[in-house]
Amino acid sequence: MNITAKVYLNEGDDWFQPFDANTAQLRLAATFDIDPSGDPKTDLHDIFEQLNVGGGLVPAEDYTTTYRNAGNRSLSVGDVVILGEIAWTVARYGWDTISTHDLTHAIRA
């Protein structure tokens, strides 16, 4: 059974810094389905790899090609990936969950 992933890029002045709901300005960059591994950290790692080096160092998934063709930058610290109903932000080392309140506060209208 597939799970929907949504990628939000932080386009605030503090992009490439740890996520801060008060300063982040998230833009929905991609929505796609993945076949989950059963471990969200593995799925997040795979998405991070695809949206950074997919098509170069590793074969690109279909969503990687669509993401790149839309002119999106690489996934970085402070960006957000939602897997199903849980929002994760790229941390300096790994991933941190963020609340629905913080997520909705940071999404640009």
Order of helix and strand elements from N to C terminus:
EEHHEEEH
Strand content: 25-35%
Structural class, please? alpha+beta
- Helix count equals 3
Distance between the termini: 31 Å
What's the main sheet like? 5 strands, antiparallel
User: Taking all residues together, what is the mean pLDDT?
Assistant: 95
Provide the helix percentage.
25-40%
Strand order of the largest sheet: 2-1-3-4-5
- Count of folded domains: 1
Described by the principal axes of the CA atoms, the overall outline is globular
Number of strands: 5
Low-confidence stretches: none
How is the secondary structure organized here?
Elements: E1 3-10, E2 26-34, H1 40-53, H2 62-69, E3 80-83, E4 86-90, E5 95-98, H3 100-106
Antiparallel strand pairs: 1-2, 1-3, 3-4, 4-5
Summed up, what is this model?
This protein has 3 helices and 5 strands; from the N terminus they run E-E-H-H-E-E-E-H. It has 109 residues and is of the alpha+beta class.
Report on the structure:
By secondary structure, the protein is of the alpha+beta class. It has one domain (3-106). Helix content is 27%, strand content 28%. It has three helices and five strands. The chain has helices spanning 40-53, 62-69, 100-106; strands at 3-10, 26-34, 80-83, 86-90, 95-98. Strands 2-1-3-4-5 form a five-stranded antiparallel β-sheet. The longest helix is centred in the middle third of the chain and has 14 residues, at 40-53. The termini are far apart. The mean pLDDT is 95.
